[in-house]
Each structure stands twice: as C-alpha cells, then as structure tokens.
Amino acid sequence: MNVNVIHLGPRSIAALVLVSAVGVAALGWPFLAPPRSQLTAHATDAPWLFAGLLILLVVVVAATISESGLGPKAVAMLGVLAATGAALRPLGAGTAGIEPMFFLMVLSGRVLGPGFGFTLGGVSMFASALLTGGVGPWMPFQMLAMGWFAMGAGLLPGARRLRGRTELVLLAVYGFLAAFAYGTITNLAGWPFLSGTASNIAFQPDDSVPGNLARFFLYCVATSLGWDLGRALCTVVLTFTLGPAVLRALRRATRRAAFESAVTFEPR
Predict the structure, then answer these.
(1) What does the pLDDT read at residue 264?
(2) Is pLDDT at 41 greater than 70 in this prediction?
(3) Which of 101, 79, 78 is nearest to 90 (CA)?
C-alpha cells in the first residue's frame, strides 16, 4: 500500500512549478546568459543571489504544501524520517561518496508520495546542513535537488501494484541515475565560483556555451565522478539489501497511521 500523505492541490503544484523553474534558471544561468552580459559580469555574486531567492521559494513551497493537509501524524512521520536521513548522511562523508541517506529518500518518496517526498528531501538536507555545519550558498540547491530526487521516486509507475523484485529493480535503477543527476545539479551550483581562476575546467563568462559545457563536463569528471559513482552504487546495494524491510516498515507505518482516514469524534 502506497499513500499520498500530502495531497498536491493546484496551489501546491503551482508553487512546485515556480520553484523548479527558478531553480533551473539559477542552476543553468551560466549557459543561458549571453557572453559579456551583466549577469556574467557578476559571476561570483550570482550564486549568492540565486541561493537567497531559492531558499525563500523553498520555504514558500513547503508552507503551501503543508496547507494541503499535513496533519499531525504526517508531521511526526516527516520529523522521524528527516532526522533519520540527516543522521545517515554524515556516516559515509569523506569515504568515496557513500551516503546511505539517498536510498531512504527514494524509498520514502516511493511509499509516501511525491508531495511528501519533496518536503522530506528539503527538510532532510536542511537538517543535515545544520548537523554537519554545511551551511552555505550551496545549501538551497542541495535542498531543491534532494526534493526533486525524492519527489521523482513518488512519481515512478506502479505505485499500487508493482511489488517484489521488480519494484526493487525499478527503485535501484532510478536511485542509480538520480544519484548522478544530484551530483550534476550540485556541481552546477558551485562551478561558477571558479570563475577567474587559471584552470581549463573553470567557468569563463566570456566563452561560448559549447566551450563552457566542455569545461563543466571536465569539472564533473575531475571533481565528483568518483563521489557520484560511490553514491549511486551505495544506493543500489542498500536498495537490494535493506529495501524490502524498509518498504515493509514504511507501508506498515502508513497503514497503522491511517493517513487517509478521516478523524471522527464519538459523542460521550
């Protein structure tokens, strides 16, 4: 049994589309802004400006989603899973990108739905940043990327019918690909800070789009490919080994919590 703990209404969907569009613009501006434009002239300032705007929009989205019916039981579930994810993330920090948090985000988004997944991803990354001291202009981008990551798991097909090994394969493949996508997104957030350095992988505001794309590809290979591969493989291994037990636990918890049942009060 999979449950949409947070029902996405028109306002929530509109807010998600808005923050996602701003996020894409904030991440892709090095390839969208023409050379010698005012934006590229402030290459080292733009990430800070985008980060400030993005964190405000993420807060707005979280508030809008919560208005869609985030009851006390869902808040409790969100708090437990976010705390668990935040605690899991530092376990493999510094060791080849082994981050157990990612597989939990995939499975939680799968069972509890895309709205809950987006909220959980953002809250977990925020809590993790506070726990590890990783607060900086990159944090809003990490929150958004993890929100997309967990939300995508909730949008995978066969949520109510697909079970067993077939479902695990689907989740493992998604987790593997999404781990690389997450690494690429977070690379885009930090790459412009290299502008002006003497390096063939740094962002060059005066260069063409193909030239900067080639530099960004080399930047990803040189700085994060090993981490992304480690994250992807860790997600696959944990999905196959711990996934069945975690999926059963999450589904059992949703059944007992009866998120979709109306609360009634009996007269005395």
Answers:
(1) 47
(2) no
(3) 101
